[in-house]
Amino acid sequence: MVAGNFKVCVVGGAGGIGQPLSMLMAMDPNVAELCVYDLTVSMVPAEGVAADLSHLNKKSKVKGYAFDMADRAIDKAAECLTGCHLVLVPAGVPRKPGQDRKDLLNINAGIAKNIVEACAKYCPEAVVALIVNPVNTVVPAMCELWKKKGLNPCKIVGVSTLDVVRASKFVHEITGAPIDGLEVPVIGGHAGTTILPLFSQCPAASAIPADKIPDLDTKVQNAGTVVVTAKNGKGSATLSMAYAGARLGKAVLAGLAGEASVECAYVASSVTELPYFASKVTFGKQGVETVHPIGDLSDYEKGRLAELTPILLEEITAGLEYAKENE
Ligand code: NAD
Ligand code: LMR
């Protein structure tokens, strides 16, 4: 593998997240080739998104691929996926006001399975970063299917970076501390109370009185719903998600290039009693290199961890069952 010359595919690349995410990845100096993969029925043809991005004066070559689901898309994906080092997956249905991320499971797990199977066939060495919701359940389901094919689970990554981005922004807004370098680790999962920001591990957040932390915690948990409500039935977070997804994608590529890089991500884990968990992860030459322990927690955070554990376990179990039933 040559550092800085990676092939990246964005599946769902013509969608709300997919377009800006494709743009940010096309601008990454580590990307030599970017494939925009979507369905023929997407709002904008994938080839059109690619033609547009191909004019950026960046080194990446951008190609678009549109597949018809009825036309054995998995077979046609060969050219697009073969040789990929990183596949970012924002393909799937976003929620509407009143819906929970869990309500997307039936439709989105089917979409993710189709894509993960195509990756297993054509780019089994790639890191597959799943943005599609519900992350808490889709990631365990897809990781189990991946393992059953004899593939390395260190390649399957659930993208929870947006929670870190949000928590860090909110601490900056409250404290006025410089945004650069301000980082709140977020552990657990990516839905409701399973999202656990560790303000106690962010030096800038020490300026926030303890009695204000529960409201700030709730604000991070509900941030996705705030966007869904504001978009009023026309989707969920796309631009901030593309920003966060590109941050994760760039960290993965930096790791593959030999520059180990740390981000929080939701992965197969043994740092708690749960088999899948978001915590700090070092990305290296093989993908997930180290899953870091969660570190010291405040009493409030310890209570929250105890509260979220059975909820996240139930959502993980749903994923393991999906994998069993859909081999
Ligand atoms: P969108 O509807 O705007 O775009 C989804 C795209 O996926 C569409 O272009 C669609 O044609 C494509 N697609 C659907 N099935 C496909 C398949 N089988 N193969 C290839 N492409 C396919 O939706 P969006 O707003 O971009 O959101 C996408 C997903 O990301 C949703 O499930 C949403 O809940 C999730 N999301 C996750 C996070 C996170 O933090 N992990 C944040 C925001 C959104
Ligand atoms: C988010 O956190 O913005 C995403 O998971 C999308 C959603 O449904 O809230």
Description of the structure:
With 327 residues, this protein is α/β, with parallel strands linked by helices. It has two domains: 6-159, NAD(P)-binding Rossmann-like Domain (Rossmann fold), CATH 3.40.50.720; 161-316, Lactate dehydrogenase/glycoside hydrolase, family 4, C-terminal (L-2-Hydroxyisocaproate Dehydrogenase, Chain A, domain 2, Alpha-Beta Complex), CATH 3.90.110.10. Helices cover 42% and strands 19% of the residues. It contains ten helices and eleven strands. It has helices at 18-26, 46-53, 73-76, 78-81, 105-122, 135-148, 161-175, 213-231, 239-256, 299-325; strands at 6-11, 31-39, 61-67, 86-89, 127-130, 156-158, 186-188, 195-197, 261-268, 276-284, 287-291. The strands form three sheets. A six-stranded parallel β-sheet has the order 3-2-1-4-5-6, with helices on both faces. A three-stranded antiparallel β-sheet has the order 9-10-11. Helix 1 (18-26) packs parallel to helix 9, helix 6 (135-148) crosses helix 10 (299-325) and helix 7 (161-175) packs across helix 8 (213-231). The protein is globular, with a radius of gyration of 19 Å. The two termini are 32 Å apart. Residues 94-95, 101, 133, 162, 224-225, 227-228, 236-237 line the site of (2S)-2-hydroxybutanedioic acid (LMR). Nicotinamide-adenine-dinucleotide binds next to strand 2 and helix 5.
User: How would you write the strand order of the largest sheet?
Assistant: 3-2-1-4-5-6
Could you estimate the helical fraction of the residues in percent?
40-55%
Find the CATH topology of the largest domain: L-2-Hydroxyisocaproate Dehydrogenase, Chain A, domain 2
Order of helices and strands: EHEHEHHEHEHEHEEHHEEEH
The CATH superfamily of the largest domain bears the name Lactate dehydrogenase/glycoside hydrolase, family 4, C-terminal
The averaged pLDDT comes out at 96
- The tally of helices reads 10
Tally of discrete structural domains:
2
Q: In the CATH hierarchy, what is the architecture of the largest domain at level 2?
A: Alpha-Beta Complex
